[in-house]
């Protein structure tokens, strides 16, 4: 056998062995975390967890109804804000990104926001909103997690629209369609499944964010649907209950962690299966 070929073959085998080993180590800890979460979380699941509010310190029973409803309100409102803003911004970047300096700056800022720590975004919203109105609120929490979701939707929409073949655009232009109609009714429609996937991934991203909500929505022991007041939410409740000295609170924290994990897992599976679509040739 050629010595050069033998050397490359052994380098390939060693590289593959280290890659498989690294994957196995990662999967081992992932499975360990999931199994621990399932074992401890399922023992906390009960009907009362969905029908009762968070208990007072030292009391027995209680549930997470107010936190579940609050999380649904926050994530739902943030999705309603981030989806149109992110999609329209992504369309602008894909359609005018090569011609406008503003599009280049927007893309650069979007990349920065994608990698920005969520606690920094929470502090930003606290400084410009909470500190001025002098109270925590659900709207502040919505604003904070919307700033996390928007870059995800923008980048996904931009990347998906770039996959649309130029022949499809040229055919629409040859029929006399204006540029905005080509962008909205031709390019966006061709990759609508990919854009929906991006929205679902953004929802999955913000569903478990804790740090921004600590500075904005905070928490509420009682049930409240007023977005202008502190609002209970699962991430903050899990954070507070997991660090408490009460067994009941820690059990509810495991149950809440299991709910968020399975919700995010379900959204990821949904985005990769139900809305999977190939870009037209």
Task: Please provide a written account of the structure.
This protein is globular. The model has no long low-confidence stretch (mean pLDDT 90). The relative contact order is 0.15. The protein contains twelve helices and no strands. It is mostly helical. α7 crosses α8. The protein has two domains: 40 residues; 225 residues, MetI-like (MetI-like fold).
Helix content: over 70%
CATH topology of the largest domain: MetI-like fold
- Taking all residues together, what is the mean pLDDT? 90
Instruction: Please state the second-level CATH architecture of the largest domain.
Output: Orthogonal Bundle
CA(first)-CA(last) distance: 45 Å
SSE order: HHHHHHHHHHHH
- State Rg: 23 Å
- Gross morphology is globular
Distinct helical segment count? 12
CATH homology superfamily of the largest domain: MetI-like
Q: Which structural class should the secondary elements be placed in?
A: mainly alpha
- CATH classification, class level of the largest domain: Mainly Alpha
Return residue spans where pLDDT drops below 50 for at least 5 consecutive residues.
none
Beta-strand content: under 5%
* Largest pleated sheet: none
Could you outline the blueprint of secondary structure elements for this entry?
Elements: H1 3-42, H2 47-51, H3 65-96, H4 101-115, H5 118-133, H6 138-162, H7 166-174, H8 179-190, H9 192-207, H10 211-214, H11 234-242, H12 247-273
Helix pairs in contact: 1-12, 3-6, 3-9, 4-6, 5-6, 6-9, 7-8, 9-12, 11-12
Briefly summarize what is shown.
The protein has 281 residues and is an all-alpha fold.
